[in-house]
Amino acid sequence: MVPENGEPYYETFDHTADLGIRVFGKDAVDLFAKSGTALFELITETGSTAAEAQVTLTVSGVDWPDVMVNWLRELLYLWTGRELLVVTIEIQSLEEFRIVADVGLVPFRPEVHPILQEVKAVTYHGLDVQQKNGGWEATIIFDI
Q: Residue 31 to residues 36, 47, 106: CA-CA distances in angstroms?
């Protein structure tokens, strides 16, 4: 079931030494945008921070789960490799197994962005991305 307005668009669950999330979207575009947003909400509080820079990411895979892992790994690299936080995501196109998105970024500032959870990696373990109950749903497990 896709949560209605005002309800959370993702939920977390514990997984042995990892952290899992289940994300709900009205369609695939919504699901991929919300999955990226959820990743950064787990990492820190960005609130209503305005983007200071933007990059366009193009990510592909062999199927939807592979695209999801590759997408989230690209986003996570912005944090772990470049100390940039994702504050906006606008999907430009999503076609079979390929996503193009404009991602709004801000530099990490420890005095403004408290670390809530260190996410080390996106895993394939338990991964599921599918159309379900009139919407789309993804189950993703992060190595923490």
A: 9, 20, 22
